C-alpha cells in the first residue's frame, strides 16, 4: 500500500509540475503583451487573440490546481478517513503568489485580474458541488464513497451556490466586466465540470460533445459583442482566444490527468467508509 501511495504522490507532483510550468508561461505571455501598450484597445486583433488565449489557459491551470486541491483523495497514513493537507496548502500558497503577481502586473488593466479570479472561482465551484452531492473524490487507486448524504452536505452546497451568485453579482457591477465576459466565464465553467467528469470517468469518448459547445460559445459571444455595441473585432478576438485557450488546455490537462490514472465519476474500483467526515 505504501508503494502504491508513493507512486501516486509522484504522479500528482508531476501533474502539478506541468500545471505550474504552464501557469508561469501564461503569466509571462500576458506580462509581455501588457508592456506593449497603455490600453488594451491599442493592441492589434492578433495580439488581443493571443492575450485572450493566455488568459483562458491561465484560468484553466488555476482551476485545475484548485480542483485538485479541493477534490483529490489523499488519505492520511495513520487514519484513512482523514485527508492530508500539506500538499493542498503548498498548492494554495503558490496559487496565491501567482494571483498577487497577476494583480500587481495588471494594475492598469484591472478587468484582466477580475476576469481570471472570477473564471477560477466559478469553474472550481462546479466540481465541488458535484463532490458535495456524490461524495466522490478524484482518486488514482481506490475510490472512497460515502452513501450517507447529510443535511450538512446540502447546506454546504447552498453556501457555495450563494457565494458564486454573490461573486457573479459583484462581477456584473465591475465597470469593465461586460455581460459577454460573464457569459464566457459561466459557459467555460460548465465546460470544465462537464469535461472533467467525462474524461476522468467511464464514458470519456463522449468528451467530443464539447465541440458543439465550443462552436456555440464562439457564436454567442461574437453576437453579444456586436449587439451590445462593444469594442468591435478586438473584443471578439479576445473572447474567442479566451474560449479556445480554455478548451484546449482543459483537454490537455485532463488527458494528462487520465494518463496518470486519475479517475473521478464512474470508477469501478471503490470501497465504502461508513463514517468518513469528507
Properties at a glance:
278 residues; mainly alpha; two-stranded parallel ribbon; 70% helix; 2% strand; globular; disordered N terminus; disordered C terminus
Give the SSE layout.
Elements: H1 2-34, H2 45-71, H3 86-105, H4 110-134, E1 143-145, H5 151-173, H6 179-199, H7 210-227, H8 232-259, E2 270-272
Keywords: Membrane, Transmembrane, Transmembrane helix
Protein name: Transmembrane protein
Transmembrane segments: 15-37, 49-73, 85-104, 110-133, 154-170, 182-200, 207-225, 240-257
Structure explained in plain terms:
- Helix content is 70%, strand content 2%.
- With 278 residues, the chain is mainly α.
- The longest helix has 33 residues.
- The radius of gyration is 19 Å and the shape is globular.
- The protein starts with a helix and ends in a 6-residue tail after the last strand.
Amino acid at each position: 500500500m505504501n508503494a502504491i501511495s508513493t507512486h501516486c504522490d509522484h504522479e500528482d507532483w508531476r501533474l502539478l509540475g506541468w500545471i505550474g510550468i504552464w501557469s508561469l508561461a501564461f503569466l509571462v505571455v500576458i506580462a509581455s503583451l501588457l508592456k506593449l501598450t497603455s490600453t488594451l484597445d491599442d493592441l492589434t486583433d492578433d495580439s488581443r487573440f493571443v492575450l485572450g488565449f493566455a488568459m483562458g489557459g491561465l484560468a484553466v491551470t488555476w482551476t485545475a490546481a484548485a480542483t485538485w486541491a479541493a477534490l483529490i483523495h489523499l488519505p492520511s497514513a495513520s487514519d484513512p478517513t482523514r485527508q492530508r493537507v500539506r500538499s493542498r496548502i503548498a498548492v494554495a500558497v503558490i496559487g496565491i503568489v501567482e494571483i498577487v503577481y497577476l494583480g500587481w502586473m495588471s494594475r492598469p488593466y484591472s478587468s484582466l485580474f477580475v476576469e481570471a479570479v472570477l473564471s477560477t472561482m466559478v469553474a472550481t465551484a462546479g466540481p465541488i458541488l458535484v463532490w458535495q452531492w456524490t461524495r466522490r473524490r478524484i482518486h488514482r487507486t481506490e475510490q472512497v464513497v460515502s452513501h450517507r448524504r447529510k443535511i450538512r452536505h446540502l447546506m454546504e452546497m447552498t453556501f457555495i451556490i450563494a457565494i458564486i451568485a454573490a461573486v457573479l453579482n459583484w462581477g456584473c457591477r465591475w465597470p469593465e466586466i461586460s455581460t459577454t465576459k460573464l457569459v464566457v466565464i459561466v459557459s467555460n465553467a460548465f465546460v470544465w465540470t462537464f469535461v472533467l467528469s467525462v474524461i476522468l470517468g467511464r464514458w470519456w469518448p463522449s468528451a467530443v460533445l464539447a465541440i458543439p459547445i465550443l462552436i456555440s460559445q464562439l457564436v454567442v459571444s461574437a453576437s453579444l459583442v456586436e449587439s451590445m455595441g462593444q469594442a468591435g473585432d478586438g473584443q471578439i478576438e479576445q473572447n474567442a482566444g479566451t474560449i479556445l485557450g480554455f478548451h484546449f488546455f482543459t483537454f490537455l490537462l485532463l488527458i494528462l490527468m487520465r494518463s496518470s490514472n486519475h479517475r473521478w465519476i464512474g470508477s469501478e474500483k471503490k470501497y465504502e467508509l461508513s463514517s468518513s467526515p469528507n
